[in-house]
Design a protein that fits this description.
The chain is an alpha/beta fold. It has nine helices and eight strands. The strands form two sheets. Strands 5-4-3-6-7-8 form a six-stranded parallel β-sheet. α2 packs across α5 and α3 runs parallel beside α9.
């Protein structure tokens, strides 16, 4: 019953087709960052549907996301949670998100790589604590991963926080390493430096926005293999694009960011 129904129409393209459902039929542009893509849908609602797919909206580059600001009470509660988990009061946090959800498991960097990265970071920085994050359904597996590091400075926070509490943790931490998934974009709302590992999809379209977002992508000829034009389907069962990202490479970037943040007043 909605009078205005905006979405991407296939026209002569190969993407999903919604038939005559839409009143505002927007042309999908696979060369735009996904943030600009969705802004296009919003702007199209004010356009004359008879003129579409052509209309005069020009996306602005480099849109900076909003800033999340935790309350004093939220920061105090999160500090208390970290205390209960044994984190030293002056410990500096490095967050690792080894999860990517079930939608596209090929996005995952190997868990053994995350454990190896954690060991190297803890050996390099005596004041660092590695905190593994994740959703409640990922808690058991994430706890095993944190335990496999073999250090009292490696802890599991998966399933222990609400979304706002997790964002508060981001604001207290130094660096996040994550697969291409939601946490990279949540992190862009905070002061943390986030390193996102890409493979089946491309950071050119899906990289988190903001000056503290950093991406690593091997750039293999077969990558990216999923997109809006193939319904996010792929024949790949061997994510060499993720395997090509080495622990050495990730460690070097994280160590650089960690050291830089220590030098800031």
């Amino acid at each position: 019953g909605a009078r205005q129904r905006v979405g991407f129409h296939s026209y002569f393209g190969e993407g999903p087709y919604r038939g005559d459902l839409l009143t505002h039929r927007v042309l999908y542009n696979p060369h735009l960052h996904t943030s600009a893509t969705f802004l296009t849908l919003v702007e199209a609602l004010d356009a004359d549907p008879g003129l579409l797919p052509a209309f005069g909206f020009r996306p602005r580059p480099g849109v900076v996301p909003l800033v999340f600001r935790a309350s004093v009470e939220e920061r105090t509660a999160v500090r208390a949670l970290l205390d209960r988990l044994g984190v030293a009061p002056h410990g500096r946090l490095i967050l690792l998100n080894a999860n990517a959800g079930d939608l596209l498991p090929l996005r995952k960097w190997a868990e053994g790589n995350y454990a190896g990265l954690a060991r190297r970071l803890l050996a390099e920085f005596a004041d660092a604590w590695v905190v593994f994050t994740g959703a409640a359904e990922e808690a058991a597996r994430t706890a095993e991963l944190a335990k496999s590091v073999g250090s009292t400075r490696s802890i599991c926070l998966a399933g222990c926080t609400s979304l706002r509490e997790l964002l508060t943790v981001y604001g207290l931490a130094e660096v996040l390493v994550t697969n291409d998934s939601g946490p990279a974009h949540f992190a862009a709302l905070t002061s943390i430096d986030a390193v996102t590992l890409f493979g089946p999809e491309t950071p050119l379209l899906f990289g988190a926005l903001g000056p503290r977002s950093h991406t690593l992508w091997a750039g293999l000829a077969c990558s990216p293999c999923v997109n809006a034009l193939n319904n996010r389907q792929t024949a790949c069962r061997d994510n060499r694009c993720m395997q090509a990202i080495s622990v050495d490479e990730v460690f070097a970037l994280v160590a650089q960011l960690y050291a830089q943040r220590a030098q800031k007043p």
